[in-house]
Amino acid sequence: MDNSNSSSQSFLMVCLGNICRSPLAEGILKDKIYKKGLDWKVDSAGTSGFHNGENPDPRSIQVAKKNNIDISRQISRKITVDDMLNYDHIIVMDSQNYQMVNEITGGVGMEKVSFLLDYLYKDEHRAVPDPYYDGGFDYVFDIVSKAVDALIETYSNSEQKV
Ligand code: 4NP
Question: Along the 162 residues of the chain, how does pLDDT read in single tens digits?
Fold first, then answer.
């Protein structure tokens, strides 16, 4: 079903650990749609389950807080097949996430999966760099914020899809 102009779209932001990048993507998207009055459902999940039940990485909480967004109460969880059935859009941070989602779900719902940075750089499948080991949380916040602006533009204003 094409929900491009619907007011009730749902988005699942996905990374590996669901403690660094996708919690920021969830928090930033929720903040922006709240300010725009869009009634969209937003959540995030990881492909690994390594950090199930944990709050986001303190460095993600900090960079979000610096930008007046509170992600401190999010809880990490692993993506499920039900997610693929229930969400309209599954948004991954990199190609490893894409491949893992495909493996975990047996390919169910893969037509709903897109790369977050494709909303800025169409069809390039660029990665949001994983800051867990190398840092760069300010950069991750900025690039995710820009891509989320473009994502909102795509799904609130036009029929276009990535
Ligand atoms: P994320 O970052 O996928 O952006 O949440 C990571 C968090 C944890 C690990 C890797 C990446 N880890 O290996 O535990």
Answer: 444 444 689 999 999 999 999 999 999 999 999 999 999 999 999 999 999 999 999 999 999 999 999 999 999 999 999 999 999 999 999 999 999 999 999 999 999 999 999 999 999 999 999 999 999 999 999 999 999 999 999 999 744 445
Q: Which domains does the chain have, with CATH numbers?
A: 9-160 (3.40.50.2300)
**Is-above-0.90 flag for pTM?**
yes
Neighbours of 107 (CB within 10 A): 11
Residue identifier of the C-alpha nearest atom 3 of ligand 1? 16
Burial class (CB in 10 A: 0-12, 13-18, 19+), 102: middle
Residue to probe by mutation, ligand 1, list 50, 78, 91, most atoms within 8 Å of CB: 50
